What does this fold into?
Amino acid sequence: MNMATNTERFTGRAEIYSRSRPSYPAGILKDLSSKTGMDKSWVVADIGSGTGKLAKLFVENGNRVKCVEPNHDMKSVLQETFNGKENVEITDGTAENSHLTEKSIDIAVCGQSFHWFRPDEAGIEFRRILRRGWVALIWNNRVDEDAFTASYERIVRKYSPAYHGTGSLSLYDSTIKQFFGEEYELITYQNDQSMDLDGITGRYRSASYSIGEDSPEFNNVMKEFRELFENYEKQGTVVMRQVTVMYLGCLSGKFS
It folds into this structure.
C-alpha cells in the first residue's frame, strides 16, 4: 500500500471522525511531565494529527503545538478546531517528510497514526526535527472484556474486509522495539467512551476500513449496530470499553 493511498484514506471522514472518536486522558500530561521533564515551554509536534484529538491536550496545556497532517479534509477540521489559537501551527506533511525545521521540536506525539508510518523513514525524520529525542506513540484500543464491546468487534469484523485490528493491537511488538531501539516504556490508562446510537455508527464510519453508503452491505451493518444499541443501552447510551496505551521512549542517537 503506497503513501498516497494512506494519505487519502480519511478523505470524507474528517467531520464524523471529529464527532465520534474518543479524546485522550489528561494523565498523559502528568506522566510526560514526570518521565521526560516536559513543561509548558516544550514545543510539541503532533505527527499525523488528524482532527486534533490529541493535539488539543497539549494546546490546552499551553504548549506550542505543530500539527503535521497530510489529508486535506483533516486539515480543514484542524483549522476550524484551533481557529484563533496562537500556539498552534498546522503543517502539510507526513511522518517521513514533516517540513518542520531541524532540531525545532522537544517531543513528537502520534495519536492513532504510527501504524500508517514507514517506521525506518519516520525514525530518520524524527531524529532530524527533535532536539531531545522524546517520542510518545499513543492509541485508544477497544478492549473486548464486556459483551457490548465484544459484539461491536464482531460486527466490525463481519462487514469490514479491510479491517486490520484496532489501534496498537494491529502492530507487532518488534516494530515498536525496532523504532525505539529497544528502550521504551508502556503506560496504560482506562478511557471508556459513552455513546448514543449516532456515536456508535459514527465510530464505525470514521474508521479507515469501514464500508461506505455505496456498499450493498451498508444498510445491514447499520441495522446490526442499531440492534446492538437497543440490546445494551441504558438511559440512551452504551459504554465502549477502551484503554489508552502510550509507548514512550527516547530515540537512540545524539541530540543537542
Notes: The beta strands are 43-47, 64-68, 88-91, 105-111, 130-142, 185-190, 193-195, 238-240, 242-250. The radius of gyration is 18 Å. Residues 218-232 form the longest helix (15 residues).
